[in-house]
Amino acid sequence: MKNVWVLYNAVTEVYSKKTKDWISEAAVQDEVEAVCTHLKTLGFSCTRYPLLDVRKLIHDLSSPPPLIFNLCEGFRGKANYEMHVAALLELLGIPFTGNTAKALGIAQDKDLTKRILMASGIPTPRWMTYKGGDMSDYFLLSFPLIVKPAREDASAGIGRRNVVEDKESLFQVARDLFEHYHQPILIEEFLPGREFSVSLLEIHKELHPLPISEISLKDLEKDGPAIVSYEAKWIEDSPEYQLTPSICPAPVSSALGQTLRTLAIETWKILGGKDYGRVDFRLDREGVPYVLEFNPNPDISLQAGFPKALNAAEIPYEEFLKILIENNLSAKEFLP
Q1: Cis status of the peptide bond prior to 289, with omega within 30 of 0
Q2: Which domain holds residue 153?
Q3: Half-sphere exposure of residue 302, counting CA atoms within 13 Å on the CB side?
Q4: Where does 131-270 show beta strands of DSSP type E?
Q5: How many CA atoms does the CB half-sphere of 334 hold within 13 Å?
């Protein structure tokens, strides 16, 4: 039985006590269990490898496995280190699933991502980046605005107070986030329309968009800004979580569906996606879609959005894992 590694970010005790953001960080364990369980069905054995010590990892990789499922979403609670784990595997020449270090690094920097999208003609909401100090220039944007950390993922730091309607609220939220996360803060014009995502999967070097998903926001609109907050994504007993169900396939017109798929594929190609990913969208008041961000290596735990899209496409989870293996190893190498 061939053995593969599942490499993932271990949540340290120190980090978990500092902030509730550890909840999304710890959710990687659900991904690990899903991958290992279904790899066993395919005839593989699975070594779970929680990453705590880079030096130990380098030592252990002196006898590398044939393939690593890279589920690392950061290192020691720092999401911006996600790209470095992939870069290490690239330097060592070890095959791994998921996106390249370059794609992970670009996507992690929302300001850079949006600059690339804008330069490439991909519609994205107008924005500015706050790096501390005076904020007078931010009046060039039109309220309402949404304020969020520029280098986090999983909606970390995003709550309903992040949608601001005036200068005083903008200053307060931006400064609070800057002091807490110690990184640039993205200030973006808030789009009030529907929210969609398009998951993408490479199969035999061809890119396939999966059925479109929608986060239903209609029940939130009665009580403040309709956004997918951190609570809506991760706190299962919160009202936001209960009121933002995902719908896949989403009810969209053929024209809107084609536009979303086309923009998703263009975004993937421009940002250099590999294996699997997700592009998130929001519509403006006229129903025009704008790309919010690209999510390389999205959550693949069984209840997450990507496996729901796989299910809607009638692709079994085991088949998805087999596709990732085939993408990164020759047929002779991957057969158990």
Answers
A1: no
A2: 124-189
A3: 10
A4: 145-149, 163-164, 185-189, 195-203, 206-209, 213-215, 246-247
A5: 19
Integer Rg of the chain from CA: 20
Cβ contact 294:268 at 8 Å: yes
Residues 142 and 258 in one domain: no
Cβ–Cβ < 8 Å for 152, 167: no
Q: Which of 292, 244, 255 is nearest to 117 (CA)?
A: 292
Is there a single domain that holds both residue 144 and residue 241?
A: no
Kindly state whether residues 228 and 298 are assigned to the same domain.
Answer: yes
**Does 183 reside within a domain?**
yes
In order along its 336 residues, the chain shows pLDDT tens digits of 589 999 999 876 444 444 555 565 667 899 999 999 999 999 999 999 999 999 999 999 999 999 999 999 988 878 889 999 999 999 999 999 999 999 999 999 999 999 999 999 999 999 999 998 887 766 689 999 999 999 987 667 788 889 999 999 999 999 999 999 899 999 999 999 999 999 999 998 899 999 999 998 876 656 667 777 666 565 666 666 666 789 999 999 999 999 999 999 999 999 999 999 999 999 999 999 999 999 999 999 999 999 999 999 999 999 999 999 999 996 555 555
Final residue of a structural domain among 47, 81, 98: 98
What's the CA gap between 127 and 131, in Å, rounded?
A: 13
Tell me the helices (H) and strands (E) count for the chain, helix number first.
14, 13
Order across the sheet with 185-189: list the strands. 127-130, 185-189, 145-149, 163-164
Name the packing angle between helices 110-119 and 101-108 (round to 10°).
Answer: 100
Bridge-based pairing state of the strands 3-9 and 45-51: parallel
User: What's the CA gap between 297 and 313, in Å, rounded?
Assistant: 18
Count of structural domains, the chain: 3
In CATH, what number is assigned to the domain containing residue 136?
Answer: 3.30.1490.20
For residue 177, being part of any structural domain is answered with yes
257 in the same domain as 217: yes
Is 155 part of a structural domain of the chain?
yes
